[in-house]
Backbone:
């Protein structure tokens, strides 16, 4: 297992992001190895989602570089990164409205995974089954509730045939039972060799899947390493949850 | 009356064809093209150029003008529209307004200000009609235009529903950033939409030149008709464009018949204004929580004003009595 984990698949180096005078990321260094599951925690406004935007190509960094499978992809756009195998979900699901659930997935399979004809349809069906929303296939996305939208968001990312999956608070709002299902699915994806980077506030869910934990605060990485080490780090306790972390442990 | 209704209905086919491109570009790229009418006139002049200068048959000239219009759409989207759109909402309006002026004066520079028409080149079709009853006849060209609009809109609907490009267009219209994250090149989709829109607009311009006379400065009026059809039918709605076109056509036709021929355009504008007002107040009513609350809020200042007026009146009466 360690040999698999030793190859970085995606690396962000010295990433700065500022909007005018407001700096969101300060020289962030981040990497994830092939087949690894990395958790990102941090208080609201820590820059976690902005980092996802930079990695996925939706947000251009003000400085720094993003290397994916040994290639500098800093200047490539989100569509190119999706073709290369980077997929992300949003904290607030963003389904394609005016389309059915299946059409959403077919669009992702055709454009993201580059499949056509029957192959694209089969892949879309596979993604439907993985996210357990096969029964919603022909429902318009506008008729879905929040939980089903979250499942669709995950299924659509999976339909692009990703190698690196960026999950942004996918567990928020789920019941314990649904959370267990989600953890089982993400563990399965990890076992299949997918690299998973997961931003999550629900720590007990995160800890069941991840190999490594990164904590961000005020646009900086303040600690990273083995989850238990990071959570015992005094800076993390101060910045994130304080004594709550001890209870989780 | 029935004659007016049918003529208006058929005219709606032309308006739908004219408005489809405008609606598509707004629906997908959120781009308002103020040069839309001038581009339709450009399409008409391309066909006139093919017929007058190159000696082509009108139908072949129409066929050949469509790829030229497609190229115009691709180039405009690639080098002008995309760049202006990145700078906010106002710049596309100013730039396409300027583009319209350039097109008008460019056509004037090349073709002069004389009115031109394709009617002389299409034989009987420009004026021939089917006699339905003694009092009712329908022109062959308007029927052909209407049928063409139905075929074109159906084709567009099928494309949007069942093809990869269609789904990519719908996905981009819904959320361009999410579309990009799912592997769709939204710029390429916008270019494809501009190509489709310009082909439709060029076709509409050609049909206009077959049924009427055109000059290089006719674009703005066509833009207004297209806008009215789009707004009446619902912005970004494909079949709504046909409904909007028909409502506009019937309004104009009825206005001309029931009031006077000078009211042809004005009636259309008034119906457009009425629809816009109902939509506007409908939105406000929705925001304010219902008609009754809105009425109370609107009546509020008046009630206060009238109560103040009555207080003043009472005070005046009291002063008069005291004297």
Residues:
């Amino acid at each position: 297992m360690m040999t698999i984990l030793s190859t970085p698949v995606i690396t962000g180096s010295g990433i700065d992001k500022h909007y005018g005078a407001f700096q969101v990321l300060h020289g962030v260094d981040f990497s994830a190895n092939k087949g690894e599951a990395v958790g990102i925690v941090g208080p609201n406004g820590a820059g976690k989602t902005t980092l996802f935007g930079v990695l996925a190509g939706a947000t251009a960094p003000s400085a720094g570089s993003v290397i994916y499978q040994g290639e500098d992809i800093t200047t490539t756009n989100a569509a190119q990164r999706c073709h290369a195998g980077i997929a992300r979900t949003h904290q607030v699901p963003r389904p394609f409205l005016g389309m059915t659930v299946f059409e959403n997935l077919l669009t992702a399979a055709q454009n993201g995974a580059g499949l056509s004809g029957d192959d694209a349809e089969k892949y879309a069906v596979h993604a439907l089954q993985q996210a357990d929303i096969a029964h919603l296939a022909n429902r318009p996305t506008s008729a879905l509730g929040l939980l089903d939208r979250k499942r669709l968001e995950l299924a659509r990312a999976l339909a692009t045939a990703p190698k690196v999956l960026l999950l942004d608070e996918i567990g928020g709002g789920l019941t314990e039972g649904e959370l267990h299902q989600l953890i089982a699915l993400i563990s399965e994806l990890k076992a299949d060799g997918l690299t998973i980077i997961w931003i999550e506030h629900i720590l007990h869910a995160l800890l069941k899947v991840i190999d490594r934990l990164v904590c961000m605060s005020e646009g900086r990485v303040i600690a990273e390493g083995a989850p238990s080490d990071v959570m015992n780090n005094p800076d993390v306790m101060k910045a994130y949850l304080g004594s709550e972390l001890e209870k989780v442990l | 009356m029935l004659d007016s209704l049918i003529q208006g209905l058929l005219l709606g086919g032309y308006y739908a064809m004219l408005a489809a491109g405008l609606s598509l570009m707004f629906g997908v790229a959120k781009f308002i093209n103020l040069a839309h009418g001038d581009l339709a006139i450009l399409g008409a002049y391309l066909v006139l150029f093919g017929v007058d200068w190159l000696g082509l048959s009108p139908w072949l000239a129409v066929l050949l003008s469509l790829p030229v219009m497609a190229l115009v759409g691709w180039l405009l989207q690639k080098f002008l529209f995309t760049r202006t759109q990145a700078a906010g909402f106002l710049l596309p309006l100013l730039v396409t307004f300027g583009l319209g002026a350039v097109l008008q004066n460019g056509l004037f520079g090349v073709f002069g200000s004389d009115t031109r028409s394709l009617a002389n080149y299409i034989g009987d079709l420009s004026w021939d009609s089917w006699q339905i009853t003694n009092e009712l006849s329908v022109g062959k060209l308007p029927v052909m235009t209407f049928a063409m609009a139905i075929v074109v809109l159906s084709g567009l609907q099928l494309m949007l529903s069942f093809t990869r490009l269609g789904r990519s267009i719908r996905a981009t219209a819904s959320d361009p950033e999410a579309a990009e994250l799912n592997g769709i090149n939204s710029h390429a989709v916008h270019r494809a939409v501009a190509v489709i829109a310009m082909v439709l607009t060029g076709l509409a311009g050609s049909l206009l030149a077959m049924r009427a006379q055109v000059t290089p400065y006719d674009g703005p009026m066509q833009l207004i008709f297209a806008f009215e059809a789009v707004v009446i039918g619902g912005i970004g709605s494909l079949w709504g464009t046909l409904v909007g076109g028909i409502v506009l056509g019937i309004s104009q036709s009825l206005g001309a018949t029931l009031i006077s021929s000078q009211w042809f355009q004005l009636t259309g504008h008034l119906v457009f204004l009425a629809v816009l007002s109902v939509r506007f107040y409908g939105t406000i009513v929705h925001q304010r929580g219902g008609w009754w609350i809105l009425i109370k809020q609107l009546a509020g200042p008046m009630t206060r004003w009238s109560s103040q007026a009555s207080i003043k009146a009472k005070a005046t009466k009291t002063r008069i009595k005291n004297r």
Remarks:
- Residues 130 and 185 of chain A are 7 Å apart (CA to CA).
- Residues 1-5 of chain A have pLDDT under 50 and may be disordered.
- Chain A touches chain B at residues 56-58, 77-79, 82-83, 87-88, 90, 94-99, 103-104, 106-108, 110-114, 116, 156, 160 (CB under 8 Å).
